[in-house]
Amino acid sequence: MLKVDGINVYYGNIQALKEVSLEINEGEIVTLIGANGAGKSTLLKTISGLLKPKRGKVNFKGDEIAGKAAQSIVKMGISHVPEGRRVFSNMTVEENLELGAFLRKDKEGIKEDFNKVYDLFPRLLERKKQQAGTLSGGEQQMLAMGRALMARPRLLLLDEPSMGLAPLLVKTIFRVITEINETGTTILLVEQNAHMALSIANRAYVIETGRVVLSGTAAELNESEQVKMAYLGGH
Ligand code: ATP
Ranges for the ABC transporter domain (predicted)? Predict the structure, then answer.
């Protein structure tokens, strides 16, 4: 479904991604593991069109998308939930969700997706008239994910959805990610919480200082000494 092939991405003179390649098959949950600053967010931003690679290709369902406008990439079926949530604070929950669907014209489909999002996150339904800026961190994460789903993506990019959340909420968010995947959305998940990420993923890539250094099935990486030492607290 998605094929990233040898991309180099720079911020000015600083190279953040070096010859990065990865593949995601339809229906998978693929996770990207790596320390702070490894380049995970940069990779997601490149896929969603916020950054342009200097070299390399990004192919989505047969189309070359590297360098296309972010809006066209959303239209093609990729939604990005950025790190730190970024909801529109002065708008209500409902208005934020509406914005997620702004490129769509299928009124019926949009209505269906409102219901789907409220089924996944009943908390958002209870708070649909509330200003997004007054939601808790966990609720804002739910809203950011809900807003991305309103574009009816085929591929959902999630950047650190569990960051800063209490353990119980982390569990909820991971359960919902699995549910979203089961209803047919492919997922690329960036996580610091490697343990949780590997527990729901099919496959994983480990990225260190801008390079992919290891990849395999989630089960393989769970057993890898390198991963255990560096990302699973040595367990
Ligand atoms: P984190 O989990 O801390 O977000 P990450 O793996 O997502 O880490 P990136 O945010 O992709 O890492 O950053 C990769 C490298 O690029 C880092 O060295 C970072 O300092 C640098 N970088 C990121 N954004 C910019 C920017 N806007 N300008 C310059 N350098 C940047």
Answer: 2-234
What is the ipTM, given to two decimal places?
Answer: 0.91
Q: What number does the ligand 1 atom closest to the CA of 38 have?
A: 6
Locate the ligand 1 atom nearest the alpha carbon of residue 160 and give its number. Answer: 2
Which residue lies with its CA nearest to atom 26 of ligand 1?
A: 11
pTM of the complete model: 0.93
Residues 162, 209, single domain; the answer is: yes
The SS3 call for residue 163 is coil
pLDDT tens-digit series, residues 191-235: 988 989 999 999 999 999 999 999 999 999 999 888 888 888 765
Q: Are residues 147 and 157 part of one domain?
A: no
Strand partners of residue 81: 158
Q: What is the mean pLDDT of residues 60-87?
A: 93
Which residues constitute the domain of residue 93? 87-152
Q: Are 55 and 171 in the same domain?
A: yes
Instruction: State the closest ligand 1 atom to the C-alpha of 44, by its place in the atom list counted from 1.
Output: 11
Same-domain check for residues 148 and 159: no
Q: Are residues 73 and 162 in the same domain?
A: yes
CA 135, distance to chain mean position in Å, is 21
- Residue 148 burial (C-beta neighbours within 10 Å; 0-12, 13-18, 19+): buried
